Amino acid sequence: MSLPRCLCEFHTCQLMLRSRALTTMSRRCISSRVTMHPNAVAHLLPADTLLEEEKNPDYDPKRFYPAQIGETVNGKYQIISKLGFGTGSTVWLAEEMNRWPWQSSKYMALKITNCFEGDWKSANEELQMPRHISQIQLEDEGGKYVRVAEDSFVVMGPFGEHLCLVFEPLREPLWMLGRHLGTVGLSAPILKAFLKLILKGLDFLHSECHIIHTDLKADNFLIGFEDSLVIVEYVKAQIQNPGPYKEGDGRRVYQSQPDFGRFTKGTGVLKISDFGAAVFGDTTRLHYHDIQPEQFAAPEVLLGAGWTNSADIWNLGMVLWELLEDISLLDGVGPENQYDRHVHFAQMIRILGPPPVELLGRANKEVYASLSSEQGEFRHPHLMSPEDFTSESKTPSLQGEDKRLFIEFARRMLKWLPEERATARELYEDPWLSSP
């Protein structure tokens, strides 16, 4: 959705978004109180330090909710630490209060969105998905591998209302597991095991929920806690030694504390997360807006040729190299060290060969003209990567039969034509995933 172009449209959009949010969830604009932990040690950073979300060139402190450690929001969740941030929200670990004395502590992750119409829209769309998914989730095994919001409420900030989504807390993104194990990327046996769970979850989203994620990346595959004691020990450490922060622009900005330490035994369940950009759809309805991280964008997305749920399959194929080799197979980085769509397309040609005329015929005319001549020849041959730029050369961690099977597995996802890509269900049975 583009930003409104006039004041009238702005107010109309704002009212629609807030009305939709407040009719689909309980409205509880609660004033917050601060309860500081008695043993906390302050780590105040210099005011001129740029910290986390402040480094974004479009940062506006008035949009962010001024959360503080020790604060209780919605009369129910006491904030313990900051887990992460984005351009439109911050994420916090909180303890659920008002539990009975005999109940063990319960911790949740709070995603507090900015008080800005675009961020409200994204958060509201993220709320639509769990309601739909929850109706199906208990009946399908794949639902176990999908993370959705469990609660939601509105909290009032100094410059407006902030929608807060409440999630089960998870340990860390899948890509960080390699660091715990002292490897660059994940080893093939570990990656195979987790890919089976990802494919189960993705098949559930595509086949049962008819949802296209559109933003699959290593950060959105999260691993759960292997033991409840891990989070208990983390909370104790945060209470005694909270993360650093700075004061300025009317709010505190905290340094995120996402590290829960080394794994004590095995891992928890993996879950696909972050449905802020997800859409309802399947193989029958074409979408045309831009999606996906730039380096993971499918050919039909680059060409403006219309995309369906098979764009997720291409996206997952790109993520394979991020998880296995800690690289982007196609980064689209040009001579000026910046992303360039023409360079990206040239890299696709080097990996896959020339695009089929059938796909080019579906492309947006302006995009097509900038990439190819009327005869279908690529207009920028000087951008072509060297001849040794192949999927095989980009996979040094695998050898022999294991490498051959992996490349074949990846090629089932990385097809020019969307309809030729394997489905998540078909990929689950691939020989590479069952090979030793």
TrEMBL record:
It catalyses: L-seryl-[protein] + ATP = O-phospho-L-seryl-[protein] + ADP + H(+); L-threonyl-[protein] + ATP = O-phospho-L-threonyl-[protein] + ADP + H(+). SUPFAM superfamilies: Protein kinase-like (PK-like). ATP binds at residue 111. Keywords: ATP-binding, Kinase, Nucleotide-binding, Serine/threonine-protein kinase, Transferase. The keyword Nucleotide-binding applies. Residues 77-433 form the Protein kinase domain. This is non-specific serine/threonine protein kinase.
